[in-house]
């Protein structure tokens, strides 16, 4: 795979360079010729992709892969020999058609070659082999360009220029792959006897994929962003060779620029998620795409090959972050039942977008042509490739911005605020990784009705078929009950504010470890009466400690476990305290203490309205419950919001059983009614 992928990247560089050299010096023809190579490589996948996997499953995988590699080697040898546009494109199309049969056979064979526990590692190595060799190929291509004459003088026969040598090396890599595959006699069993019925054409997968994603604002933003990213990528790929030529570079400079793109891309994929680990993926995706668009604009405006290479590395890095973040989000945000269709939809859409952009961008570049303007003693030159890349950069930046606003999970919090929090090391705890279950917290002052509403919500969710854990703080564990007595009993007397904050944090740490996290890991809905916002409000604002310090203690104690949704029931202090029949140690504090607590709850909720919901506590119990249910019902991961591939609502077993009983009762009543009508 390493040698074969290295050869394939060399072949890509060589065929694009050959396409330009065959243009006869025409600027427009060169743009069309290079774009034609990429279209020839992508077009078969659009139409044959879903079918090739089915056919590949019907044959002996080892023999299929061996035959394909031999045929690909022969086709690459023939390109420099025939040396015409027609055969260049014809050979490229044939090579890609053959590759479509080779790839699924290889993917299906890997599980037979390695132990099951090593499969994930094997797939990672496979990806590294496929994409990590691109920068090496770029360096090798540049060296071939510089030393082609010297290499020919050492060989008994002349292989031609660097392009021809690269094509021959690519052919040799496929021959080597064929020899390797042929030696794996016992490791590759024959494919399945029949194709799976679920394999569908591109058109149908597009339609069904669209149905599965159109209802999600997050996935819509993700797809818009990915289409924008690949639109910009298509323009850059299609015009890179012409762009380098406009800057006075040749094949060697093209190889360096090509390598710089993939070096940046690899760096972004490998290190981006670690460097930006504290940012939520939703924000990171749109922001990285917009940043990549900005550097693409700079690339078009800077008439220097050296600066262009630097810009391309940075551009590639942010593109890599965007790519890996987007596909990670697809896997995390889309429900399991429709995930396959969604991926099929996105991949088909990306291919179609690339083909369309590769076809259109040369038209735009050729239409602009080459222009030189003189202002006094300064001369400015603008070429079609630069202008088209500039347009692509602006489009990527705009789409990245749209995608960012579609998906950002903290709408009233600026990106700059998140950057500052990240530099202080606090952002990761604010935008922690999502949990399997749903975590809902009720917050508010004394006497606001949190306990009543948490019980009502638990009952409603149980009727919806969810598995519920109802708990409280302090007192949700055996240890918590003892701590509750210490913290709230009058007999305890005065506790220093810092000691009080640490005792609440101790209760919360044990509560999360022993009760909340295990329930979330099972996919349950956890509802808690109070969580760490109470410490921030009571011990932070109420006791006049620093709310930020108290928040840090709680984040450390809970390992940054944030609720999916926090419901704050707000009620004026005089009204809420008047409801209390008796008062514990905290409830006995003065009204100004409780007013500071109330204002802190409101301040916290206003800063992050995506995860907080304020309810007017002056309403009746029924109206408050209705408002809570309406807001909780919007949580996308609730079972009541999930649908199967046919658009029918998914129900958990309890809910399914209740529905079956209800349907049976309705059916029986209907039959009874019909009989009575007949009588």
% residues in beta strands? 5-15%
- Round the mean pLDDT to the nearest integer and report it: 76
Assembly status: single chain
> How is the biggest beta sheet arranged?
5 strands, parallel
Please state the overall shape, judged from the principal axes of the Cα atoms.
elongated
The overall number of domains is 4
Strand order of the largest sheet: 4-5-3-6-7
Class by SSE composition = mainly alpha
CATH architecture heading of the largest domain: Up-down Bundle
CATH topology grouping of the largest domain: Growth Hormone, Chain: A
Please, could you describe this protein's structure?
The relative contact order is 0.08. 70% of the residues lie in helices and 6% in strands. The chain has a five-stranded parallel sheet, with helices on both faces. The longest helix is centred in the middle third of the chain and has 33 residues. With 679 residues, it is mainly alpha-helical. A hairpin with a 2-residue loop joins strand 1 and strand 2. The protein folds into four domains: 199 residues, Growth Hormone, Chain: A, CATH 1.20.1250.20; 231 residues, MFS general substrate transporter like domains (Growth Hormone, Chain: A); 208 residues, Rossmann fold (3-Layer(aba) Sandwich); 29 residues. The termini are far apart.
């Amino acid at each position: 795979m390493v040698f074969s992928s290295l050869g394939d990247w060399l072949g890509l560089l060589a065929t694009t360079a050959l396409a330009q050299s065959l243009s006869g010096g025409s600027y427009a023809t060169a743009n069309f010729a290079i774009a034609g190579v990429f279209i020839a490589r992508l077009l078969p996948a659009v139409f044959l992709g879903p079918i090739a996997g089915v056919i590949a499953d019907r044959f002996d995988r080892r023999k299929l892969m061996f035959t394909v590699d031999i045929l690909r080697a022969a086709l690459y040898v023939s390109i420099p020999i025939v040396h015409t546009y027609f055969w260049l494109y014809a050979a490229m199309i044939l090579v890609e058609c053959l590759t479509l049969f080779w790839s699924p056979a290889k993917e299906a064979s890997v599980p037979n070659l390695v132990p099951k526990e090593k499969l994930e590692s094997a797939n990672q190595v496979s990806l590294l082999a496929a994409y990590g060799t691109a920068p090496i190929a770029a360096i090798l291509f540049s060296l071939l360009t510089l030393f082609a004459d010297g290499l020919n003088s050492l060989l008994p026969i002349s292989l031609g220029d660097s392009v021809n040598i690269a094509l021959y090396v690519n052919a040799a890599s496929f021959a080597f792959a064929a020899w390797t595959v042929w030696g794996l006699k016992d490791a590759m069993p024959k494919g399945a006897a029949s194709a799976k019925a679920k394999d569908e054409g591109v058109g149908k997968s597009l339609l069904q994929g669209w149905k599965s994603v159109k209802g999600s604002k997050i996935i819509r933003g993700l797809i818009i962003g990915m289409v924008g990213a690949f639109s910009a990528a298509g323009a850059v790929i299609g015009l890179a060779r012409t762009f380098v030529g406009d800057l006075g570079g040749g094949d060697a400079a093209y190889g360096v620029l090509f390598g710089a793109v993939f070096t940046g891309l690899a760096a972004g994929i490998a290190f981006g998620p670690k460097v930006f680990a504290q940012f939520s993926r939703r924000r990171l995706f749109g922001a990285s795409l917009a940043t990549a668009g900005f550097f693409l604009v700079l690339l078009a405006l800077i008439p220097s090959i050296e600066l262009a290479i630097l810009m391309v590395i940075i551009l590639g890095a942010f593109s890599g972050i965007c790519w890996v973040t987007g596909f990670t989000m697809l896997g995390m945000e889309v429900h399991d039942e429709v995930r396959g269709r969604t991926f099929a939809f996105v991949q088909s859409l990306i291919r179609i977008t690339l083909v369309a952009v590769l076809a259109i961008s040369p038209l735009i570049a050729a239409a602009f042509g080459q222009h030189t303007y003189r202002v006094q003693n300064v001369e400015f030159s603008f070429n079609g490739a630069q202008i088209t890349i500039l347009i692509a950069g602006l489009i990527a930046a705009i789409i990245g911005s749209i995608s960012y606003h579609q998906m950002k999970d903290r709408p009233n919090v600026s990106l700059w605020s998140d950057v500052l929090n990240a530099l202080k090391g606090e952002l990761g705890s604010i935008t922690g990784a999502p949990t399997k279950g749903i975590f809902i917290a009720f917050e508010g002052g004394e006497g606001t009705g949190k306990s009543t509403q948490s019980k009502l919500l638990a009952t409603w969710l149980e009727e919806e078929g969810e598995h519920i854990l109802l708990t409280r703080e302090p007192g949700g564990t055996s240890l918590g009950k003892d701590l509750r007595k210490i913290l709230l009993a009058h007999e305890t007397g005065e506790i220093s504010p810092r000691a009080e904050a640490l005792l609440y944090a101790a209760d919360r740490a044990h509560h999360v470890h022993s009760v909340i996290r295990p329930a979330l890991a099972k996919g349950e809905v956890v509802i808690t009466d109070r969580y760490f916002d109470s410490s921030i409000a009571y011990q932070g604002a109420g006791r006049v400690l620093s709310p930020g310090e108290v928040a840090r203690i709680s984040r450390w104690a809970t390992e940054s476990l944030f609720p999916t949704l926090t419901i704050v029931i707000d009620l004026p202090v005089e009204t809420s305290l008047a409801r209390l029949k008796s008062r514990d140690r905290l409830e006995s504090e003065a009204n100004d203490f409780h007013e500071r607590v109330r204002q802190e709850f409101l301040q916290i909720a206003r800063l992050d309205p995506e995860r907080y919901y304020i309810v007017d506590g002056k309403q009746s119990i029924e109206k408050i419950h209705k408002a809570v249910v309406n807001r909780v019902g919007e949580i996308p991961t609730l079972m009541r919001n999930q649908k199967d591939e046919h658009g029918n609502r998914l129900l958990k077993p309890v809910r399914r059983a209740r529905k079956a009983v209800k349907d049976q009762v309705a059916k029986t009543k209907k039959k009874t009614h019909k009989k009575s009508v007949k009588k």
